[in-house]
Amino acid sequence: MSRRFWSNVLAVAYREARVVRHDQAFLGVVLMQPIMMLVIFGLVLSNKPANVPWAVLDRSADASARRLVAEVQATGYFRPFRSIGSYDEARDLLQRGKALAVLVIPKDFRRDVERGRPQVQLLLDGSDPLSAARIGAYVAEVAGAFATRLVPASARHVAPRLPGPIDVRQRFWFNPTLSDRVFFLAAFAGMLLTNLCLSVTSGALVGEREMGTYEQMLALPTTPLEIVLGKLVPYVVVCYGLLLFSVLSSGLVFGIWPQGSWFALLAITLPFVLASLAIGVLVSVLAQTTAQSVFITVFFIMPSFVLSGVMYPYQFMPRGVRDLGGLFPLRWYQIALRRIVERGGGFAEVLGPALALGALFALLLVLIRWRMRPRLG
Questions:
Q1: pLDDT band at 43 (very low <50, low <70, confident <90, very high)
Q2: SS (H, E, C) the chain
């Protein structure tokens, strides 16, 4: 891009920054909202809970093991299982969010069944306590009713089916204590930035229109794209300040620090912030009055929180609703946050969400530019 392009963007950004600096209400919200949300998600909210992705590491490969897997599958809570061959593959699936649970059946499972002392291991993704607790309960219930004693074929017509407990050794990865606080604060930055980005930019252009300066702004020697990017720059700086606050406050107050790459966290935040701010600008372009912009903003914020997975696991949602949530930037950002903060991920783990956020931002810019065609007179 040319030097003139960036000069125009920075000129609009400087103008917007001066407006923000004198907006006492905005500065008050920026200071108070993070503290309020930190208290709510760190101290107040708590969750104790179909369609669960899982895998099976079957080292026995006998009928008893297959019967146990079939009984777990028959509960109706799980998707068709994925067979794997090692613990490394199990960890990889859990780390990438491709499975929420891995059932490990030992090599001597049949012998232990015959002796009445069977054991299995259940590896669970503890980064989502709601899911992990419920999944563990499902499998434990099946194991508790599993018939551990083999009935001789000649006596099956008279012998009852003798149930006996299977010793299920559960192990929770990424959040061993299943703390709800870890679950909520891992996505704290996403909720905070979504609320701020949509709120502050949704009234930007509609405010110019109501003050009678919209046409004057369009008459400047700048393109609609330069105007939009210039208006976003000051808020990007503010958002990184809030990101730093959310990470430091969660770490210093509650001891919850990112386990993965901080550079990956900073990198994935930029496309998320730009996409979220672009949604606010699009709302401002579509609305004719400030009241309309507020209404449309609430329409975006509420589904974004509900469908993204920050409050409730999106994996448990029906297929169509789950796909709809992918249209909101918060869905991809919360996936990246959980991979970095809880699972110790880096750039490779957040590449997919980064590409999705970049595509959303580009699409929103196209829509904004189409709606901002200069119309003077």
A1: low
A2: CCHHHHHHHHHHHHHHHHHHHCCHHHHHHHHHHHHHHHHHHHHHCCCCCCCECEEEEECCCCHHHHHHHHHHHCCCCECCCEECCCHHHHHHHHHCCCCCEEEEECCCHHHHHHHCCCEEEEEEECCCHHHHHHHHHHHHHHHHCCECCCCCHHHCCCCCCCECCCEEEEEEECCCCCCHHHHHHHCHHHHHHHHHHHHHHCCHHHHHHHHCCHHHHHCCCCCHHHHHHHHHHHHHHHHHHHHHHHHHHHHHHHCCCCCCCHHHHHHHHHHHHHHHHHHHHHHHHHCCCHHHHHHHHHHHHHHHHHHHCCCCCHHHCCHHHHHHHCCCHHHHHHHHHHHHHCCCCCHHHHHHHHHHHHHHHHHHHHHHHHHCCCCCC
